[in-house]
Amino acid sequence: MDNTNNSARGRLQEGVSFTSRLIVGEGDTAISMGSGTLPVLGTPRLAALLENAAMLAVAPVLAPGETTVGGELSLRHLAPSGVGASITATAVLEKAEGRKLYFKVCAREGDILIGEGTHTRFIVDAERFLSKIHPQ
């Protein structure tokens, strides 16, 4: 039985957004992340920053016990950013269909667009979601 009608679904507003920020450190580089051989912002770290922005955009309206989980990310990493660069990652809620949330995401280093894409998240009951983990 789906009893989440009293949850965030009725309170989500298209256009709600959040911007996460990062100063690129050595641990954020492609070398450190194992995704490349250069000391530039790694695509996995950029993806995580964009997911963080989407998560935080809707977190304030979730019901107690609810959270969101990532389901899909389509990302174009357009330009390199070095250690020390200041990155902003913004997620904007474009549509909510029940528990499925669609975001437009982009990242900038100053005025330079360094990444863009789309991200889908799902509203879940945290306890119920964790109960689905298979024991090792």
Q: Which stretches are low in confidence, meaning pLDDT under 50 for 5 or more residues running?
A: 1-7
Measured between the Cα atoms of the first and last residue, the distance is 28 Å
- Global outline: globular
Number of individual domains: 1
Structural class: alpha+beta
**H/E element order:** EHHEEEEH
Radius of gyration: 16 Å
The CATH level-2 architecture is identified as Roll
Number of strands: 5
Calculate the mean pLDDT score and round it.
93
Query: Number of DSSP helices?
Result: 3
Say which CATH homologous superfamily is assigned. Answer: Hotdog Thioesterase
Q: Tell me roughly what share of residues is in helical segments.
A: 10-25%
What is the class in the CATH system? Alpha Beta
Residue share in β-strands? 35-45%
Largest sheet: 5 strands, antiparallel
What CATH calls the topology is Thiol Ester Dehydrase, Chain A
Describe the protein's architecture and organization:
The protein is of the alpha+beta class. It has a single domain (about 5-130), classed as Thiol Ester Dehydrase, Chain A, CATH 3.10.129.10. Helices cover about 20% and strands about 40% of the residues. It has helices at about 30-35, 45-60, 125-130, and strands spanning about 15-25, 65-75, 85-95, 100-110, 110-125. The protein has a 5-stranded antiparallel sheet. The radius of gyration is 16 Å and the shape is globular.
